[in-house]
Design brief:
With 198 residues, the chain is of the alpha/beta class. The protein has one domain (5-197): Rossmann fold (3-Layer(aba) Sandwich). The protein is built from six helices and eight strands; from the N terminus they run H-E-H-E-H-E-E-H-E-H-E-E-E-H. The chain has an eight-stranded mixed β-sheet with strand order 3-2-1-4-5-7-6-8, sandwiched between helices. Helix 4 links the parallel strand 4 (98-106) and strand 5. It starts with a helix and ends with a helix. The protein binds S-adenosylmethionine (SAM). S-adenosylmethionine (SAM) is lined by residues 25-27, 31, 47-50, 53, 80-82, 104-106, 132. S-adenosylmethionine is lined by residues 25-27, 31, 47-50, 53, 80-82, 104-106, 132.
């Protein structure tokens, strides 16, 4: 299983405990598979809107699921991300459970629409979001500020002549959302330039 740099970096950003992770807009499911394979996360839901995609993914998971840790649990859901039932999703989850919703590989405008619907359902729950928009990042950051999200981690990935901003956000912890990207994100890209100019 070969992940591109963007998906690999997203998987590395899942480095704290979550009881349940949602790989939303999962398509091929590579990101969720890698996160489960890393062994830190024990339960993950794959979500995509397109039945052909989710059926294909179910077949792939049946074929290759034995490569995952024995205690890994997953389900594949065919539905609109904005309608996922965060509180009720996993049978044994309580309201104290820590959940991570990953939305990657779609436009910032669509992520805004999804968050507008999902965020009110997060009240009283512990939900972080890991976002990777393919465009409209500034507009998304503006909306994230309005929704009172804070930034826990940010990375910039340059791949195929394109820059991707990866953002781990939360209501409970982190620093103020920057509209143009936090130091956490830019310091990684600036270091090589500093070395070159010195
Ligand atoms: C380009 S793929 C992204 C794959 C992977 N997440 C990535 O970052 O490479 C976008 C996927 O989002 C799905 N999608 C778009 N809008 C959606 C929605 N509202 N709910 C669920 N899936 C959606 C599409 O069916 C498609 O499979």
């Amino acid at each position: 299983m070969k992940l591109n740099k963007r998906l690999l970096t997203l998987s590395e950003m899942v480095n704290e405990h979550y009881d349940l992770v949602w790989d939303c807009c999962c398509d091929h499911g590579l990101l969720g598979f890698k996160i489960l394979a890393d062994g830190v996360i024990k339960e993950l839901n794959f979500v995509d809107l397109v039945p052909d995609i989710t059926n294909k993914l179910k077949r792939k998971l049946q074929q290759h699921g034995h490569h995952l840790p024995k205690d890994a649990q997953w389900q594949v859901l065919c539905q609109d991300v904005s309608e996922i039932a965060l509180a009720k999703s996993a049978s044994q989850l309580t309201n104290d459970a820590r959940q991570l919703v990953i939305i990657s590989g779609i436009g910032g405008d669509l992520i805004i629409e999804i968050l507008n619907k999902l965020t009110p359902n997060c009240s009283g729950l512990h939900v972080d979001f890991l976002l990777c928009p393919v465009q409209h990042t500034y507009k998304l950051r503006k909306r994230l500020r309005e929704l009172q999200f804070k930034s826990k981690d940010e990375r910039l990935v340059l791949e195929n002549n394109r820059g991707y901003e990866l953002m781990l956000i939360s209501h409970s912890a982190g620093q103020a959302m920057s509209l143009t990207g936090s130091d956490m994100m830019w310091k990684i890209i600036l270091w090589p330039q500093v070395i070159l100019t010195n």
